Structure formats: C-alpha cells, structure tokens
Amino acid sequence: MNRLLMSLWIILCLSVVAAGYIRLAPSNPEKWHVPLEFETDADFRNGARRVIDGDQTEFDRLDRIIRNEPRSTVLAGSLADGRVTYVLRTKFVGFPDYATIERVDGQIRILSWLRFGSSDGGLNRTRVERWLKGLETR
C-alpha cells in the first residue's frame, strides 16, 4: 500500500512539473517568428498552412479575428511589419500553439502549429479554417 501511495505521489508531482513547464516555458521570438517561405496549402500532423489572396484590409481583419481567440497573445511582429506571430493556449493545460500570418505580394500566408508533441489532432487546421470562414462572413 505504501509503495502504491508513493508511486501515485511521484506521478502527481511529475504531472504538476510537466504542466508547469508547458505553461511557463519561454517562447523565443527568434525561433517562432520567422518568414513564411511557402506558397501552397498543406496539412500536417502538427499543424496547417494556408495561402490566400489578400490586401492590407483583409490582413488587418485576420489579425483581429486571431486576437479575439480566447487565450491568444501576440508573441512578436506587427501589422505594419507585415508579419505577426501569436501564441494560442488550450483552455485547461495551457498547451501553446503558434500561429504566424504574413502579407507578401498580394497574398496572406498563414501557419499554425503546435509546440509540444507530434500531433495536434487537427486542432490547428480547424482553427485556421475557422479564421478563414470569419474572413468570408465579414
């Protein structure tokens, strides 16, 4: 019984430490806020990317849509720079996902991907599609 109780305490402590690291790990803008060098849409196990035609007005609207996401913060960049990277956290554990939007030559490039793990279960693809539908409805 004591061995079982000790094992449960160790598991609990490790879980708290892991959750704390996930929530508090620093986000280095030099690593995550980088130019988006792709020209085609793609879905991955850990994220999604999209390319749409868009001007500054649509870029501004997309920024507002992303900033209105719950638990969304700007990591780096600005609309004036033409590139913005956001941190979007899950509700309970606070897992960070990153999203970058960039305006280049009449296009808006969007990349959304997870930081921890190898698969997001389609969460980032779903999120990007929701943002694009938001652009269509306005």
Count the beta strands.
6
Do you know the CATH topology? TATA-Binding Protein
Q: Count the helices. How many?
A: 4
What form results from the Cα inertia axes?
elongated
- According to CATH, the homologous superfamily is Kinase associated domain 1, KA1
N-C termini distance: 61 Å
Cα-atom radius of gyration = 18 Å
Q: From the helix content, strand content and strand pairing, which structural class follows? A: alpha+beta
Per CATH, which architecture?
Answer: 2-Layer Sandwich
Helical residue percent? 25-40%
Instruction: Round the mean pLDDT to the nearest integer and report it.
Output: 89
| Order of strands across the main sheet | 1-2-6-5-4-3
Instruction: Count the domains.
Output: 1
* The CATH C-level class name: Alpha Beta
Describe this structure in words.
The radius of gyration is 18 Å and the shape is elongated. The model has no long low-confidence stretch (mean pLDDT 89). Helix 3 (56-67) packs across helix 4 (123-137). The chain is α+β, with helices and mostly antiparallel strands. Strand 3 (72-78) and strand 4 form a beta hairpin. It is built from four helices and six strands, in the order ααββαββββα. The chain has a single domain (28-137), classed as Kinase associated domain 1, KA1 (TATA-Binding Protein). The longest helix is centred in the first third of the chain and has 23 residues, at 2-24. A six-stranded antiparallel sheet has the order 1-2-6-5-4-3, covered by helices on one side. 39% of the residues lie in helices and 30% in strands. The termini are far apart.
